[in-house]
Amino acid sequence: MNDIIINFLKLVIMRSCPILTAALGEVINERAGVLNLGCEGIMLIGAAVSFLTTYFTNNILLGIIVAVIVCAFIGLLHAILTVTLKANQLIIGLSIWIMGIGLSSLLYRVFIGIRQALPKIPILEDTKIPLLGNIPVIGPILFSQNALVYLAYILVPLIYIILFKTSVGLNIRATGENPEAVDVLGVNVFRLRYLCVICGAALMGLGGSYLPLAEIGTFTEGITGGRGWIALALVIFGRWNPIIIFLGSLLFSGVEVLQYYLQITTNVPYQFLLMLPYATTIAVLVYVYRRAEAPAALAKPYERGERI
Amino acid sequence: MPELKRYISLIELVKGTTFRSILLYLISVGLGLIIGGALPALAINISPMEVYQTIFYASLGNMLRISETLVKTIPLWLIGLGIAVAFSSGFWNIGAEGQFYWGAIAAIGIGIIISGMNLPPPIAILLILIAGFLAGALWALIPAVLKVYLGVNEIIVTVMMNFIAIYFAEYLILGPWRDPAVPEPMTYALPLEARLPKILPGTPLHAGIFIAIIATLVAYVILEKTPLGFEIKCVGNNPKAALWSGINLSKVVISSMLLSGGLAGLAGVCEITGIHYRLLRGVSPGYGFLAIIVALLAKLSPLGVPASAFFFAMLLVGADALQRTVKIPVSAVYVIQAVILLSVIVLEIVLRRGLKR
Fold first, then answer.
1. Across the interface, do A300 and B150 touch by the CB < 8 Å criterion?
2. For residue A281, is pLDDT > 60?
3. Residue B269 C-alpha, separation from nearest chain A C-alpha, in angstroms
4. For the structural domain made of B63-329, what CATH number should be given?
5. pLDDT (tens digit per residue) in B217-250
6. Taking a C-beta distance cutoff of 8 angstroms, is the pair A219, A58 a contact?
7. Rounded to a whole number, what is the distance in Å from the CA of B141 to chain A's nearest CA?
8. DSSP string over chain A
9. Model ipTM value
C-alpha cells in the first residue's frame, strides 16, 4: 500500500514537469506584460524538435538544447511581432499556436515519414541523488527522479528569486504593471520585454521536450494534448507567482495521474476519465477567476511618448 | 488611448484602400505558399512547382475535383461564419471544434430516434438541422455564461471544452452508439430520409452548400443590418464605451455566442448528413481550428468568409492529394495559414507606418 502511494506521488511530481516548466515560461512573459497564447504551439515544436534531434543523434542533452534554441527563436518572432510591431497579441498568439500544430507534425513527417512501428528513443532515466535519495518516503518521491525534474526544482526558486528579489525582476514586474513609469526611470522597456518573451518561449520549448524525452519516448501529433493551454490556466491559478504555480502544477498532474489509476481500477469508460484534466481546468478557472489579478499592462503593446 | 487602440487593432487587421488590401493579400498568400509549400518540397526532393501544380490540379482540375473542394469548403465556411460573429463581439471562441462535434452528435442522435418512423425527408432534415444548431449553441452557451457572469477567460475554457466534446464523441462511437454490423468503430448510419441530397450527379457535392449560402446571408443581415449586429460590433470594438452607451453586454455576448456555436453545429450536421452518414473518429481534420484563420483573413466579414474558406479548402484537397503521392501531411495547411496571417499583419503594420512618415 505504501509503495502504491509513493509511486503515485512520484508520478505526480514527474508529470507536473511539462505544465510547470511551460507555465514558468508563461509567467515570465506575462509579468513583463506580454501574453503568449502560442504556448501550446511552442510546446509542440519543442517536443518535435527535441524528439527528432535525439532520434538522429542519440543524444538527449542535444535534443533539449536544440529544442530550447529553436523555441527561443519562435519567442524572438513573437517579440518582434508583439513588442516592436505592436500587433494584437491574441491574434499573434493564436497564429503561433496554429503554426506549432502544423510545423510540429510537418517536421515529423518530413524527417520520419510514415512508419508501421513508432520510432522510439530511449527515455531519460531516473538518477538517484546520493544521501537525499536514501531518506525514507521523501527520497523515492522527490530525489529519485530524472534530470529534467531536478531542473524544474531549480527553476521554480530561481525564477521566483529573479522576479521578486532582484532589481531586474522589479523592472520586469513594473513593466507588466506600468511600462510608462519604467521607461521614465530610464529602463529600456522593449529590451526587457524581448528578454522575457524569448526566455519564456525557451522554457515552453523545454516543457514540450519533456514529453518525448522523459515520458513517452516518441512523438505523436498533438502530443501535448492541451498542456500548453492548461499551463496558461495554471498561471492564473498561481496568481503569477512561481511558488503557487508549482503547487498548482501538482494539483493538475495529480488529476492526470489519478485518471490513469482510475482507468485501471474502475469500469468508467476511459473517455470520461480522459476528460478529467480538462474539466478540472475549467473548474479551477471558475473558482479562482474572481480573485485573479493579472498584471495591469498585460496584452497591451507599449508605445513610447504616448500620452494617456 | 492605448486601450481603445488595442480593441480596434483586431477589426483593423487590414484596412485601407482596396488596392492596397488586395496587393497585401496577394503578397501574403504568395509568401505562405512559398514557405509552406517549398519547405517540405525541398526536404523530400521534388520541385516546389510540382507541389503547386498538384494542389491546383487536385482542387480545380475538373468538375469532380471542384465539387470535392466545395465539399471541404462547407464546414470551413459555416464555422468561419460563426467565428466571425463571435470575434466581432470580442468573444474569442476557440471552441468551434467542440461545437462542430456536438452538431454531429445531435445529427446521429436524431437519426437514431427517427429511424423506422419513415418521416418525409424535409421534416427529418429540418429536425436534424434544428437539433444540430441547438447542440452547438448550447455547448457555446457554457463559456459565454462563464465569461459574462463570472469573468472567466473564454479562450482557455473553449479550448478545454473541445477536448471534452471530442472524447464524448469518441465514447459514443466506441460505446453505446457503435454499429456492430461494421468492423471499424462507427456509429449507426443515418436513415435514408435524413440524408442531404447530392446536387450534382456523380459528384460528392451536397445540399449543405445551400445551407451555407443561407447562413451567410443571415449572418450578413444580422451583423450589418440589425441593431443587434451594431451592438455586437460596438462591444467588440470597445466594451467600455458600449457599456456606457447603455448596451446590455451580457445579452450581446450570449446571443453572438449562441449564433456562433449554432453555426459550428450546423457544420457538423452538414458533414454527417451530407458525406459520412455516420459519426466516426477524426471526422474533422481540425476544421474548428482552421476556420479561426479563415475568419480572421476574411476580416470577420460574413461575405469574405466563403472566399477565404474556399481558398483553404483548395489547400486541404491539394494536401490530401499530395499526401497520397509525396506524403505531405494536411498539417502543411496549418503552417501555410499561419504564415499568411502573420505576413498580412506584418505587411499591414509596416505599410501603415511607412505611409505615416
1. no
2. yes
3. 23
4. 1.10.3470
5. 999 999 999 999 999 988 888 888 888 888 888 9
6. no
7. 14
8. -HHHHHHHHHHHHHHHHHHHHHHHHHHHHHHTT---TTHHHHHHHHHHHHHHHHHHH--HHHHHHHHHHHHHHHHHHHHIIIIIS---HHHHHHHHHHHHHHHHHHHHHHHT---SSPP--PPPPB-PPTTGGGSTTHHHHHSSSBHHHHHHHHHHHHHHHHHHHSHHHHHHHHHHH-HHHHHHTT--HHHHHHHHHHHHHHHHHHHHHHIIIIIISS--TTTTTTHHHHHHHHHHHTTT-HHHHHHHHHHHHHHHHHHHHHHHH--S-HHHHHHHHHHHHHHHHHHHGGG----TTTTPPP-TT---
9. 0.92
Write down the pLDDT at residue B355: 60
Q: What is the signed CA dihedral for A32, A33, A34, A40, rounded to 10 degrees?
A: 80
Confidence band for B17, pLDDT divided at 50, 70 and 90: low
This prediction's pTM: 0.92
Q: Determine the Cα–Cα distance for residues B262 and B79; give it in Å rounded to an integer.
A: 9
Domains of chain A from N-terminus onward:
2-114+153-291 (1.10.3470)
Would you kindly state where each structural domain of chain B is located, as residue ranges?
63-329
Task: Indicate the residue of B327, B331, B349 with minimum beta-carbon distance to A102.
Answer: B331
For residues A55-64, average pLDDT = 94
CB of B171 closer than 8 Å to CB of B149: no
Helix (H) or strand (E) holding B297: helix B287-297
**CA distance to partner chain B, nearest, from residue A144 (Å):** 33
Phi, psi of A212 (to 5 degrees): -70, -35
Q: Do B349 and A37 touch (CB under 8 A)?
A: no
Q: Residue for cell digits 467588440?
A: B236
Give the whole-angstrom CA distance, residue B255 versus residue B154: 15
Residue whose C-alpha cell reads 513527417 in the numeric block: A109
Beta bridge partners of B198: B206
